[in-house]
């Protein structure tokens, strides 16, 4: 059976039951579990150091009022990071290549930051729609433009994450297919494409980490605007 390049983005199923929920909960198995020991092993120490580092980076743009969101933002960052990296393994499925899932993560969190601003400081939140010193004839157009840019933020978050991961997976599959097809006819060219595939895989690991960080960082910046 001939498979399309886009078949890798379809959610796997078993007996008609989609397995995307299992693939989304699997990264939780890699997180450290709670115990009562004073001294932990090296792996737990490394994980706790990494979580502490991520939390500091995400809380840096926020003031003390925004530190209440530390648990949500750090958990989201680690969740996206693990899913993106696990999706690079062979014969795996990456849930973050689905636009529906990314929008389901982006829209509620963006809406929460917006409602937080409207509840705590409604005048300042609505004031972002009209820059200070705007000429009177341009006021209706600027309000419309700023409102549109505000409403498309969750869409931009979801599309950015989906597009970057989808493009990387497609490039890896295209180059790996070319490497396999050229191995019997032009082995030297096949070795060259294999080297390109290796470099691209390293690049995709970096992209997986950067996109998870950018997704959560933009949410933290949206939160800072509203607190």
From TrEMBL:
Cellular compartment(s): Mitochondrion inner membrane
Topology within the bilayer: Multi-pass membrane protein
Pfam family, one: ATP-synt_A
Superkingdom of origin: Eukaryota
Catalytic reaction list: H(+)(in) = H(+)(out)
Any one GO molecular function term: proton-transporting ATP synthase activity, rotational mechanism
Transmembrane segments: 12-34, 69-89, 101-118, 170-189, 195-223
UniProt key word Repeat: no
Alphabetic keyword roster: ATP synthesis, CF(0), Hydrogen ion transport, Ion transport, Membrane, Mitochondrion, Mitochondrion inner membrane, Transmembrane, Transmembrane helix, Transport
CDD domains assigned to the protein according to its UniProt record, in alphabetical order: ATP-synt_Fo_a_6 (cd00310)
Main location: mitochondrion
One Gene Ontology term, aspect cellular component: mitochondrial inner membrane
UniProt xrefs under InterPro entries: ATP_synth_F0_asu (IPR000568), ATP_synth_F0_asu_AS (IPR023011), ATP_synth_F0_asu_bact/mt (IPR045083), F0_ATP_A_sf (IPR035908)
Sequence similarity: Belongs to the ATPase A chain family.
Quaternary structure, from the entry: Component of the ATP synthase complex composed at least of ATP5F1A/subunit alpha, ATP5F1B/subunit beta, ATP5MC1/subunit c (homooctomer), MT-ATP6/subunit a, MT-ATP8/subunit 8, ATP5ME/subunit e, ATP5MF/subunit f, ATP5MG/subunit g, ATP5MK/subunit k, ATP5MJ/subunit j, ATP5F1C/subunit gamma, ATP5F1D/subunit delta, ATP5F1E/subunit epsilon, ATP5PF/subunit F6, ATP5PB/subunit b, ATP5PD/subunit d, ATP5PO/subunit OSCP.
Name of the molecule in the record: ATP synthase subunit a
Species the sequence originates in: Motacilla alba (White wagtail)
This protein's encoding gene: ATP6
